[in-house]
Amino acid sequence: MSEILFYLGALMIVIGGICDLFGALGLLKFPNFYVRLHAATVGTIGGAVVPLFGVGFLALGADFLPHKYAIAGASFVTGIIVLLAAPAGAHALAYAAHKARIVKWQPKVDHLAEVREK
Amino acid sequence: MLESAFMTLMKFVIPLYLLAFIIYGIRAFKGPTIVDIILAVDCLSFDIAAFMAILAVYFKSVFLISGAIILALWAYLLDIYIAKHLVSKEVGV
């Protein structure tokens, strides 16, 4: 049972590292702030939440850790905090960038500007 | 047995995370607008929190985890403050 938890956590940590690298490459290469938000979602949810839950499972299954329950519980709490805080923060940042008009772009459809002009 | 498997895993995982940190740092230094810089610092903080949780297992220490929780909360606070300042040109209630 502990080996299953350990190898599940190790798989989640590897998936998190790969998602983290791809999110960073997208954040560097994409042309626009609103397109970069998409890569930032890959970098935070796939690159921080998944390895945090993976560390929790790995610490529950590991037999060489002296404080494994403390590490697992705090990792789950940090994962839930990032899962709730990252979309709210990115959404507030996108709304502020649209409201302050600091990013130049030519959209096909802009429902927020149509609503604000009424 | 499991400890040696974990050390082998770390040899593959640590270069991935360090490369991602360097690329986020490049975007944070050369970002054209302020929201790009804040987004890059945000991603960097969340990923350093995840990496500190991995290092807590690597060094067998509990004290790195409390720093990870505070780092995740600080990145959210930075987002909200910058958004509030950009919308209303002040930070406060």
Task: Report on the architecture of this protein.
The complex is a heterodimer of chains A (118) and B (93). Chain A has helices at residues 2-29, 33-61, 68-100, 111-117. Chain A is an all-alpha fold and 118 residues long. Chain A has one domain. The radius of gyration of chain A is 19 Å and the shape is elongated. Chain B has one domain (1-87). The longest helix of chain B is centred in the first third of the chain and has 29 residues, at 2-30. Chain B has 93 residues and is mainly alpha-helical. Chain B starts with a helix and ends in a 5-residue tail after the last helix.
**Radius of gyration of chain A in whole Å, from Cα?**
19 Å
How would the global form of chain A be characterised?
elongated
Main β-sheet description of chain B: none
Summarize the largest interface: chains and residue counts. A-B, 58 and 50 residues
- What low-confidence regions of chain B span 5 or more consecutive residues with pLDDT below 50? none
Shape of chain B: elongated
Question: What's the average pLDDT of chain A?
Answer: 88
How many helices of chain A does DSSP assign? 4
Helix coverage percent of chain B? over 70%
Series of secondary-structure elements of chain B, N-terminal to C-terminal: HHH
Structural class of chain B: mainly alpha
Oligomer: heterodimer
Query: DSSP strand (E) fraction of chain A?
Result: under 5%
Number of separate structural domains of chain A: 1
Number of strands of chain A: 0
- Quick check: average pLDDT of chain B? 89
Characterize the largest beta sheet of chain A: strand count, sense, and whether it forms a barrel.
none
- Unreliable stretches of chain A (pLDDT < 50, length at least 5) are none
Please provide the ordered H/E string of secondary-structure elements of chain A: HHHH
Q: Approximately what portion of the residues of chain B adopt beta-strand conformation?
A: under 5%
What is the tally of beta strands of chain B? 0
Pfam families (chain B): MrpF_PhaF (PF04066)
Transmembrane segments (chain B): 6-26, 33-56, 62-82
GO molecular function (chain B): monoatomic ion transmembrane transporter activity
Organism (chain B): Thermococcus paralvinellae
